[in-house]
Amino acid sequence: MATLKVPATVPPVADDCEQLRKAFQGWGTNEALIISILGHRDAAQRRAIRRAYAEAHGEELLRSITDEISGDFERAVILWTLDPAERDAVLANEAARKWQPGNRVLVEIACTRTSAQIFAARQAYHERFKRSLEEDIAAHVTGDFRKLLVPLVSTYRYDGPEVNTRLAHSEAKLLHEKIHHKVYSDDEIIRILTTRSKPQLLATFNHYNDAFGHRINKDLKADPKDEYLKTLRAIIRCFSCPDRYFEKVARQAIAGLGTDENALTRVITTRAEVDLKLIKEVYQKRNSVPLERAVAGDTSGDYESMLLALLGQE
Asked: Which residues make up the binding site for Ca(2+) 1 (predicted)?
């Protein structure tokens, strides 16, 4: 389901490093060469390039990139070049420090990664920022959002396939009762959403649909403008249909008068090695336009070329 295209024969790491060094040197930066290398290497290969580059040239590759390019292109290349756990740590830090109720980045990270991936991101956060993600969320987020988001990023969910059907039935009933009484920040709602495994939650949501005749997210639309309810719906969508969730983020980033480059870059760089092919299929079906064409129509220059490379365009 990934869109990343890695050459059948990948050059030696040392060759990649030397080519990147050449791209940075001289009168002008060779942006196309940067894209041709970094835009076609997987996470392990990029990690090896960063390590070898630092050893060969005494400088972090990310520093060289930052010194030579700028703007949206720089952000896309930097986010892509980072290890996935480092990338999540950087995105989570930005979301926590500049938090606003409409920001769903913390939800995306907490609900679309495996338990091991979230744990790795939290470790990367410690190493990079010398404090925990949880304490930064607690410091910058308030009220019901803090009550929800701190345990959401802290949990280490069971990753196995087992489902307790009786528990799914009882917790679907409990969720319906709390939602019916509009106590959306009730401890029981938060407990269920922040501790149960993904298969268990999907079983609970499915039973909710069967027992009450509609999806749980329909009952969470009592006030369509309420950002806390939007956050609860985002959590459920990230668990139940992440491809549709990310398609919507990409669509909203492109739609309208201006492009939300941060959101578009985030979707493409975080999903290119995961499920971006599936997201592209959902986008095509929903909008009758290939995502590549939509991106090309809303971006330009080297930034456009980098995103299209990650989207798998030849």
From this structure: 24, 26, 28, 68, 254, 258, 296, 299, 304
